């Protein structure tokens, strides 16, 4: 075909400058649009108020609604889960975090941590007992790994489980646990004589409590808790039978980090869109500030990093769907995308000027949320060291 007979390229789309929607099929687009519509109806009208109050009211109802649209454990198969592709799950995470990081965290912890742990490492009885109700949002789950004194070094956790006849006695504390105070089940990791094991803990068990953490300045529209385990007695079949050691919780974290790679770009997109609209309408010196060179340079740089980040997320999603995604590549994505998302939010704030700190706009809310996303499920430094080891073959952790 000669160049003269080729069809003309489509018009430039400011919302999709690289034409990334061409990579998506109709089912991908339908899932994205379903989640986007849900957030527009159920989250965006209220999120500034929830954030200002430091609450997520009606979280159990929201969970049931999310279950109703197939967003909980959506990339898992069977047991009432949607069986969506990794890319489709990523698109959902992007739309959820474009509304608020706390909403994406609710979904991520439910599906990629608590449900995934049971689905991947649980017995058939555990799967049947918990997964269908969790997929429907009837039961909320949480994931207990981080401790007050042990975040980046989970191998040193102090929570322990000891055998008492055929039962287990679980004792310890977990910290910064999303969904903890509203969860019906907790997946808790503990030291045992045989190594680190995971336990499925009904939160109504005697000795279990989950006081909510207050006075947060990030992820305010999210339930964050401490888990206190005071000699919680569990039956023998509470342990996840298919894994021993840190491989269990770390594989769950890798699954959740993948969702963050997409989600961070949702927060960035929301902030970028706010900056573009503001730049087109805010006038200074007799014309819109979007017509000034320095503002256009900021917008162009943000657009480049935003859509590069989405393209990176899409590439990692295709690798995950093909069974070829490595944990080091997930670290690559989380390190880059969260770091760039924060910078996009900060630059957007400069375009909005003083209005950038107002909850009338989403920018400062996203920026403060991303400060938590930057360090949870692996700090910047830990992901740098993961990549450093992969690049050099030398372990700098020890």
TrEMBL record:
Cofactor: FAD
Annotated ranges, domain Acyl-CoA dehydrogenase/oxidase C-terminal: 245-391
InterPro entries: Acyl-CoA_Oxase/DH_mid-dom, Acyl-CoA_Oxase/DH_mid-dom_sf, AcylCo_DH-like_C, AcylCo_DH/oxidase_C, AcylCoA_DH/ox_N, AcylCoA_DH/ox_N_sf, AcylCoA_DH/oxidase_NM_dom_sf, Glutaryl-CoA_DH_mitochondrial
Keywords: FAD, Flavoprotein, Oxidoreductase, Transit peptide
Residue ranges constituting the Acyl-CoA oxidase/dehydrogenase middle domain according to the UniProt record: 142-232
Family statement: Belongs to the acyl-CoA dehydrogenase family.
PANTHER family hit by this protein: GLUTARYL-COA DEHYDROGENASE, MITOCHONDRIAL
Listed name of the protein: Acyl-CoA dehydrogenase family protein
């Amino acid at each position: 075909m000669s160049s003269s007979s080729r069809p003309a390229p489509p018009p430039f789309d400011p919302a999709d400058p690289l034409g990334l929607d061409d990579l998506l099929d109709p089912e991908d687009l339908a899932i994205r649009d379903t989640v986007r519509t849900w957030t527009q109806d159920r989250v965006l009208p209220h999120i500034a108020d929830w954030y200002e109050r430091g609450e997520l009211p009606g979280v159990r109802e929201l969970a049931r609604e999310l279950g109703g649209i197939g967003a909980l454990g959506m990339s898992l198969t069977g047991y009432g889960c949607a069986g969506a592709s990794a890319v489709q799950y990523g698109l959902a995470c992007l739309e959820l975090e474009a509304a608020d990081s706390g909403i994406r965290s609710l979904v991520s912890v439910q599906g990629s941590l608590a449900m995934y742990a049971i689905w991947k490492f649980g017995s058939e009885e555990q799967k049947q007992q918990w997964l269908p109700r969790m997929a429907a949002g009837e039961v909320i789950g949480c994931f207990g790994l981080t401790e007050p004194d042990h975040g980046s070094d989970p191998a040193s956790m102090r929570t322990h489980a000891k055998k008492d006849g055929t039962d287990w006695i679980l004792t310890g504390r977990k910290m910064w646990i999303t969904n903890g105070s509203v969860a019906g089940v907790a997946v808790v990791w503990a030291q045992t004589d045989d190594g680190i094991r995971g336990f499925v803990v009904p939160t109504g068990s005697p000795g279990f409590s989950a006081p909510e953490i207050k006075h947060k300045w990030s992820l305010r529209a999210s339930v964050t808790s401490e888990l206190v385990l005071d000699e919680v007695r569990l039956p023998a079949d509470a342990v996840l039978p298919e894994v021993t050691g840190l491989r269990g919780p770390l594989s769950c974290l890798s699954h959740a980090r993948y969702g963050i790679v997409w989600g961070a770009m949702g927060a960035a997109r929301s902030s970028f869109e706010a900056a573009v609209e503001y730049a087109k309408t805010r006038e200074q010196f007799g014309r819109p500030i979007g017509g000034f060179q320095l503002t256009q340079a900021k917008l162009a740089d943000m657009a480049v990093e935003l859509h590069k980040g989405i393209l990176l997320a899409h590439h990692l999603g295709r690798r995950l769907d093909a069974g070829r995604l490595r944990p080091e590549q997930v670290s690559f994505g989380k390190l880059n995308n969260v770091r760039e998302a924060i910078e996009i939010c900060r630059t957007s704030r400069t375009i909005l000027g003083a209005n950038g700190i107002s909850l009338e706009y989403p920018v400062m809310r996203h920026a403060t949320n991303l400060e938590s996303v930057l360090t949870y499920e692996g700090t910047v430094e830990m992901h740098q060291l993961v990549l450093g080891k992969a690049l050099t073959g030398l372990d700098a952790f020890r």
